Amino acid sequence: MTDFHTKIREQIANEALQAALDANAERRVQGRIKALATLPDPQERRQRAHAVRADVIGHLDEYLEKFIVKVTENGITVHRAKDAEEANGIFLQIVGAIRESPLLVAKSKSMVTEEIELNHAIEKAGHRVIETDLGEYIIQLRGEKPAHIITPSVHLRRHEVGELFTEKLGIPYTEDIPTLTNTARKELREVFLNADVGVSGVNFGVAETGTLTLVTNEGNGRMVTTLPPVHIAVMGMERLLRNLDDLALMLSLLPRSATTQKISVYTQLIHSPENNQQKHLILVDNGRSRLRNSHLQEILYCIRCGSCLNACPVFREIGGHGYLGADGSIAPYPGPIGSVVSSGLLGENYVQLAQASSLCGACKDACPVDIDLPKLLTRVRAGESGDQGNALPSPVKFGLKAYTRLATHPALFALSQRLAGLGARLVAPVSKWMKFPAFTGWGYSKDFPRPAAKPFRNRFQKIDRGDAENTERAVSGEKTEKTNTPETSKVNLVGRFTEELLALGGRIVICKETDLPTKVIALLREKNIDRVQTWDQIPGLEEVDITKAGISVQHEADESIKAGITGALAGIAETGTLVIPGGEGQPMTASLLPEIHIGVLRAPDILPSMEAAMSTLEIADLPAVTLVSGPSRTADIEMTLTIGVHGPGELHVFLLV
Asked: Total structural domains in the chain?
């Protein structure tokens, strides 16, 4: 029995793991469905997103060239790496230029850095690297690999985290999740403030504007890209979009599919370095060019949302650590997506992962960019893993060819189904004592069910074809009637913005501009705050108004300051989001470091949607923009929502009408 089979049985027998995986799947799957239902046209968006990704991958060289030119013009140094070794070497060369002594590296969650094993390279060079995402921090303390693309510690229960923090951090044992989260916040705050280098991934790069986009909830991504004197972003070269309109589309799908949110708490749009900061971008190939020229090209459309993992019945049973390569190593990417991309990028060692699939199609249904994962999984099974050659034994290849002959001839296929069904009905009654674990696993955990007397094909032919006709119209591009799309002109933008912000845990005060100073000062006094960090200028709020009330004002970042006050470029009604610009006189730290973020927004600046914001605001002309949607949050321990992680725990919006 292989290590893979042994591990699968261990995972299935682990009751605590099964409970954790069940809770994750049930919440994520149902939450994704509800979140997508808030869109007027989710299926249409999936098709558009698929077309966008297909165009980018089909013309990747062209878009990469355009992207690199814009990023360089924006003041960010670009490096290209052909493989993991070169990417890690470039990283160490950059940090080696800072100073010779060991450096402190603060790192946010990034799957491509897991793929190239960047942490190992950093530590081997004598530097200290700390994962700052709560889930990643937990598994780093345990010496483990991520168990999920989005929720790295999904396999752990609260008592295991409590025991870990007692052992590693020296706190009294507790299972209280807010206490555990606050402990991590305190430990990691020192890392953010003292880090020599910040490392992040990149969710999307925008070719037209050179934008680096990061989507996070906890605030650690903002910390590592803003505070350290050197920020290094590591990006898979395929993670490109054409323009900001494409980005708006993807931002309507990614959070809903990944974390079941309409939008993540923080979406960063980075164009240029902070003051006195170096920014570098390492573009990683590591097999992507080879994959692009293979039969698995479509896997490069993936936007790493993890929804296929949550939907997959196999992942729900074995978890991320159950996906082992032939050498016993845990695959960097688990689940349906990992079964294709791990073998496609990293070779034959992970080809066997494609067998850990029922080919039920749930992964395709869940994919926000409509990747045909079952098709790709069968191609990996057939040995079409990049240019790695055909890894399947001859009998299996013969069987697949025979099946292809039958499947491509409807009459032969129907006959084979009848014959197979007849044979199965004869075998099924004795399957309870037939054990074939050495071949398929049948008899180990399940019986072969007795097939139905009447084939599905015969029953299907009698079904009313009305729904099928509607499907054909949608695929052909023919427009269908929409009944749930609101007319933007009739939407109460202030009301919608308020409703969405409150749902995300934000607080709102609607007032006239003349009343703003009084209202803000009242809030500060209520919170016993006597020092604030502000922008140089905020509409409706003069510095003198605050200082007259005995509250000191400064514009530089200070860890001891408890409240930061910023303006807002705009608001987005459909998600309750503030669009916060960054640049000269508008320090990003004012909305990041303090425990309380106070934002000032004019009602006329509220826009209906993300699409409207991307198309009407001059975002590309700003050094940076952060979309803020509520206080920072996490659900990395037992899927329990906890407010206030690395970013502010309170968001107060003063809406000027």
From this structure: 3
Q: Are strands 563-566 and 596-602 parallel, antiparallel or unpaired?
A: parallel
453 and 526: one domain?
A: no
Asked whether residue 526 falls in the same domain as residue 598, the answer is: yes
Phi, psi angle pair for 287, to nearest 5°: 100, -5
Query: 122 in helix, strand or coil?
Result: helix
Same domain, 521 and 552: yes
Contact (CB, 8 A) for 368 and 310: no
The token pair at 294 is 């293979």
Closest listed residue to residue 580, CA positions, set 543, 620, 624, 617: 624
The answer to whether 242 touches 56, Cβ cutoff 8 Å, is: yes
Classify residue 297 by its DSSP letter: G
Residue 572 and residue 433 in one domain: no
Q: Which of 245, 266, 284 is the last residue of a domain?
A: 284
- 386 within a domain of the structure (yes/no): no
**Do 539 and 627 fall within a single domain?**
yes
Name the β-bridge partners of 461: none
Q: Per the domain annotation, does 62 fall within a domain?
A: yes
Residue 592 DSSP code: T
State which residues form the domain around 582. 492-656
Same domain, yes or no: 427 and 510: no
Of residues 434 and 407, more confidence is placed in 407
Helix 410-427 with 394-407: angle, nearest 10 deg: 120
CA separation for the pair 566, 541 (Å, rounded): 10
Q: What b-and-e string marks burial along 111-145, b requiring 16 or more CB atoms within 10 Å of the CB?
A: bbbbbbbbbebbeeeebebbbbbbbbbbbbbeebb
| Domain stops at, among 237, 258, 284 | 284
Task: Lowest mean pLDDT of 167-176, 372-381, 426-435, name the range.
Answer: 426-435
Cβ-contact 122, 93 below 8 angstroms: no
- Same structural domain, 147 and 280: yes
Least confident of 175-179, 234-238, 318-322, 424-428: 424-428
Q: Which pTM was predicted?
A: 0.88
Over residues 564-606, the pLDDT tens digits come to 999 999 999 999 999 999 999 999 999 999 999 999 999 999 9
pLDDT at 461: 55
